Structures are given as C-alpha cells and as structure tokens.
Amino acid sequence: MVTMNINMNYNPPCQNPSITMGARPHCDGSCITLLFQDYTGGLYVRGTKGDNWIHINPIKGALAVNIGDLLQIMSNDRYKSIEHRVAVDSSRAGISVPLFVNASLDSVIGPFPQMLKDGEKPVYKHILHSDYWDYFYRKRPSGKASLDFIKI
After folding, report:
1. Cβ(29)–Cβ(43) under 8 Å?
2. What is the pLDDT of residues 27-42, one digit of tens each?
3. What's the predicted TM-score (pTM) here?
C-alpha cells in the first residue's frame, strides 16, 4: 500500500540568512519526494564528493524530484537518497510544497529481491516501516544518519 503526505513550508525573509536555515541538511525518509517550489529558490543539494552545496534554481512549471531513503533501501543502494537543505532569502519569503510518497507504516521494508544481482548480499535488513519512521523522527532528520539504523 502507498501513502502520500504533503507539507506546506513557509520561510520568512531573514535579514541575516547566515544565522538560520529553512531546513537543515537531511535526506527525506520517503521513497520519492515531489517538490513544488516558488521562484525564491533556496534548495541546495550536496555535491557528489560531499564537500559542496549546489543551488537548484527553480524552473517555472517544473517539479524537483528527490529520491529518498526508502528508495535507496528498496534498491539496495542502486539509487541514492539526496541530501539537501533549504536556505532562507534576505528579502523574500520562500514557499515550498513537498509531496512525500511512502509505503504504508504496516509494510515490511528492505531490499527487493529483484534488485539483488546474482550472489549480491542485501545492504539493509527487513524491518517494519513504522519502526524505521520511529527511528527517523527520534534522530531528527540529519544527513544520511537514519540509513545506518537499518544497515546490516
């Protein structure tokens, strides 16, 4: 079963944006996130080497699509979740509306057998999705820390 959750985020302008974040660095726990954002921008993704942040300029009429931890788990690391953050603007408010696509909380999550190549071992154990979410929210979304909980 699939569930969807939607958030509505409002980040007021901040005269000194260096002292706050709209959202600190994290990965979404979802399978996929569809992000509707206004033209203020502020979405940054961590670079592939992990040492820089890349600004994602909003494109009129386009959605940003983020891979979340759940898809990384189900694909046995073939698809990687995207660490991202949101910066505030000094003069304009920012609005974003993410739609999170998830498995139901009573589902068992883990690598799909079809994603394992011949002889490949699973990277993650199978657990109840609600147990993963309990851990995810206890740790407060931060980087990729939640994936360590389910790794074998």
Report:
1. no
2. 998 999 999 988 888 8
3. 0.87
In 3-state terms, what secondary structure has residue 38? coil
Tokens encoding 121? 């071992």
Give the tens place of pLDDT for each residue, 95-147.
899 999 999 999 999 999 999 988 899 999 999 999 998 888 787 656 677 88
Measured distance between the N- and C-terminal CA atoms of the chain, rounded to whole angstroms: 25
Q: Round the average pLDDT of the chain to a whole number and report it.
A: 88
CA distance 25 to 52: 12
The structure tokens listed for 119 are 């002889």
Q: Which residue type, as a one-letter code, is found at position 111?
A: P
Task: Tally Cβ neighbours within 10 Å of residue 40.
Answer: 19
* Domain 2-150: CATH architecture, name and number where available: Sandwich (2.60)
Q: Which residues of 1-29 are buried (b: 16+ CB within 10 A; e: fewer)?
A: eeeeeeeeeebeebeebeeebbbebbbbb
Average pLDDT over residues 3-12: 91
State the DSSP code for 143. B
Q: What distance in Å separates the CA atoms of residue 52 and residue 92, rounded to the nearest whole number?
A: 24
